[in-house]
Input
Amino acid sequence: MAAKKEQRLQIAPLNGHAFNSDMSKVIICDSSNVATIYQKDGKGVYSKDTELTKHIERVKSVDWAPKSNRIATCAGDRNAYIWNWNAEENKWKPSLVLLRIDRAATYIRWSPNEDRFAVGSGARLLSICYYDEEHDWWVSKHIKKPIRSTILCCDWHPNNYLIAVGSCDFKCRVFSSALKELEDKPETSGWMPKLSKFGTLLVEFNTSEGWVHGVKFSPSGDKLAWVSHDASVNVVDMGNLTNVYRCLTTSLPLSSVIWLNESSLVCGGHENCPVLYNIVGEKVVYGAKLDVNTKKAGGGMSAMARFRQLDDKGADSDKGTKLTTTHHNAISELRVTKFEGGRAKQFSSSGMDGRLVFWEVDALAATINELKI
Output
């Protein structure tokens, strides 16, 4: 099995992507006001299938609920839509969400139970949205304090009642999102030592030098990781919330993070390739770059070819001018696509180069000698 499989879906940058339950379809958002669904054919190649065209400003984020098969989109027009498949009409039907915000919606994620979703925005608040059966629409409740800037990312705890938020005020926070309207009955944990009402700030972490671009709970929910614009990787365990494991890397800023298991995580960003980090004791340790260049070295350059290089580029070689990474621009989002036996088997990445790449974890481990997961 190949360690990676890539496909360039389009020329425009991909800001985000999400899959349905069997990965036969993927939805992407780019720099337009359209969210596009691609269908996988028998050869495993995705081709354009449907365009969701309700938004009037750029679509900022998308998510696909695998169990209920509902799509969530949000955009700069301050709106979010829930798309349900109508079998009779053979098309996706949108339902407007009452976000009640006056700035662009920036990020959207379904909860694990798919009975609610969260929308971050530039209005310095997080909207927790749920379905009101009495009025047949999606309504929202706001978490405002003490968020002081635009929300860039969020992630749900596996228990469905806690949510982590990263924002431009250099903070990563965890809030209680239990809704009395849905008769939630959360349990106490290291994150929430005592039962707390909706919107309660449970813990706050200061990154001090960078916007928080990506945040993710571990598979068990015991750990929380976040990456920020200062190229740092941060991890905290709920057993000791005052001790943050921080690795200040020498790379360019990171934009997304996922967990492979309870002690290994993968980050991606402006380095154009996914990078592995491991938790060793109370430290976050660099593992390896997961993008291996398998291109064989070419033969010598002829005199005519060397002359053409000098004429076209002012140099007699391509050294330093060709990218060796699979992505030719920054990685915008990482997602775990296969998770078995307590560890990720496969993950995907979308990039600003319009590429969608699938990475096989076991094949990567066999290819890279220094890789330890």
In short: The chain has a mean pLDDT of 92. The two ends are 18 Å apart (CA to CA). Residues 21 and 67 are 7 Å apart (CA to CA). DSSP finds two helices and 28 strands in the chain.
